[in-house]
Structure formats: C-alpha cells, structure tokens
Design brief:
The protein is mainly β. The protein contains 2 helices and 13 strands. It has a 10-stranded antiparallel beta sheet with strand order 4-3-2-1-10-9-8-7-6-5. Strands 11-12-13 form a 3-stranded antiparallel beta sheet, with no helix packed on it. The longest helix has 9 residues. It is globular and about 40 Å long.
C-alpha cells in the first residue's frame, strides 16, 4: 500500500530480452522510471503503474487466476499470492512463465523479476505520504498522519 518510485534497476535489458520484448518497446521501457501505486479496497488489490510512456492498471483478488495484458501487450494468465511478507505474481503464456516478487525491506520495495535464467532486480522508494490538516468541531487543530500502511494516527498539533 502506498506510492513507490523506481530508483534502481539491474539487468532489466536481460530480463525483457529473455521474455521476448521487441527492440522499440525494450528501449522505451529501459528509459522510464515508473511510479507504482498499490491500493487495497476490501478483497480487491489494485496496482497502477504510471510512466511517461504508458499507464496501466490491474485489479485482482489474492489467489484468484485472472487474465492480464502486460505492459508490452502480451496476453497472460496471472495469479498473485501472499507468501509470508511477499506478494508473488506468476504470469503464464505460450508455455512460458515469469515470476515477480514484491517485498518491503527497510522501507524499500524490492522487486526481483525472473524469467528462465534471467533475473532483474528493481528497487523502489516510497514517496512521502501527505499530511492533512483539518479542524474538529471544538476548533482544536489536528493532523492526520498516515504513518503505516494500515494505521492512521490522530495527534493534536501541539504534540508534533
């Protein structure tokens, strides 16, 4: 949950070559630094990927197979599962399979992508979460701070 900006990508060219991405698409993808937004609404998880070249959005429920169109327009069968503290995303198409694993370590989103023997490691940093100011009915100022993915903390302004 949150908004994540790509800050590092190792062996992305090797990974997309292994998957079979065309030259022009590979070049465009290699130049972008996408932002990923992860949202949870009940049982539905939505992942939005935004970049200067392409935006995409996928919504799913954990453990339920679904059809997905990848950023390079491949039609795949996908499933996402929660394994410990990791999101494991498996995509299958034409007898091939790739696996993406999302894990948050020390406030960094680590995303290894694996296809055959090619492995790409992408690292994302979380963008700062907004702090919202408002006044309650008794005119006391409060700040709403989203300090953890599933935790909202209300503090009187004079404690901050």
């Amino acid at each position: 949950m949150g908004t994540w900006k790509l800050v590092n990508s190792r062996n992305f060219d090797g990974y997309v070559k292994s998957v079979g991405v065309g030259f022009a698409t590979k070049q465009a993808a290699s130049m972008t630094k996408p932002t990923t937004v992860i949202e949870v609404n009940g049982d539905t998880i939505t992942i939005k990927t935004q970049s200067i070249s392409k935006n995409r959005e996928v919504s799913f429920e954990l453990g339920v197979n679904f059809n997905e169109t990848t950023a390079d327009d491949r039609k795949v069968k996908s499933i996402l599962m929660l394994d410990g503290g990791e999101f494991v995303h498996r995509l299958k198409w034409d007898g091939q399979e790739t696996t993406l694993v999302q894990e948050i370590v020390d406030e960094i989103l680590i995303l290894p992508l694996t296809h055959s023997s090619a492995v790409c490691n992408r690292t994302y940093e979380e963008e700062a979460r907004p702090v919202h100011s408002f006044t309650d009915c008794s005119s006391a100022s409060w700040l709403l701070m989203d300090s953890a993915p599933d935790c909202l903390i209300f503090l009187p302004w004079h404690f901050i």
